[in-house]
Amino acid sequence: MLTLYFKPFISRRLYSSLSPNYNAIILKFIEENKATSTSTVFQGTLYEYTVMRELSNKLLMKDLNKIGGAGDKGIDIVGSWPIYPIYEKMNPIFKLSEDKILKRTKINGAFVKPLRNKLEEENANMKPINIAVQCKAFRTSKVSPRDLRELVGTYTSLFANPSGKYNKAPIIIFMCSPNLLTKDGINLINSVSIPLIYLRVNMIPSLGNQYIYNETTLQEQGHIVNYYENLHASKLLQSCGIKEWLNLRAYD
């Protein structure tokens, strides 16, 4: 059985000093493994590091750990997501605190408590959201409904308590792929009663089967190109400013 250990809450004042230099990590991985650069294992691992960089740099996620391997049940990365810094910057621009948000709403048979209310109550003291990420480094094929059904099953097996109810701590599942969702895939993720976000992240391309980059040129590759919240995640994150943050490229 896979046990996922999420690190405890750390004051957001310390975050900037704790954020790793993912470009340096990626370059080190490429250099140490260039002999196997055409293998699927190399490309999959490189993609996982790319996703970690984007989650950290663009969405301000912290404590990211790569855990993929035998028995991982499809989870490649776990971490925490402090959304208050995003909300704090977007609220003055979009007046998010003025939006009327219900304390509880029902989506696909499950009750959801929007986090915006908690942000208003706790501000910077609100604990980060635990996140679990699955990476699908497909170059050509789209993510299928089968892939998504397996991910939903993983959420249920990992995060439901013995009574069948989910843990109180908000846990959001991310699926990351360089490809678009199919129409059936979109319909499926909107029909499930778990918070699921699909993140389309480009792969870092090889140059004639070689990866010849430095930190400057690497920064131009492997970006987030699409962010899609299913209905459950959309209600959970309603008026938190995440979409506005990405649309404005406020992370730059």
UniProtKB/TrEMBL annotation:
<dbReference type="InterPro" id="IPR018828">
    <property type="entry name" value="RRG7"/>
</dbReference>
<protein>
    <recommendedName>
        <fullName>Required for respiratory growth protein 7, mitochondrial</fullName>
    </recommendedName>
</protein>
<comment type="similarity">
    <text>Belongs to the RRG7 family.</text>
</comment>
<dbReference type="Pfam" id="PF10356">
    <property type="entry name" value="RRG7"/>
</dbReference>
<dbReference type="GO" id="GO:0005739">
    <property type="term" value="C:mitochondrion"/>
</dbReference>
<keyword id="KW-0496">Mitochondrion</keyword>
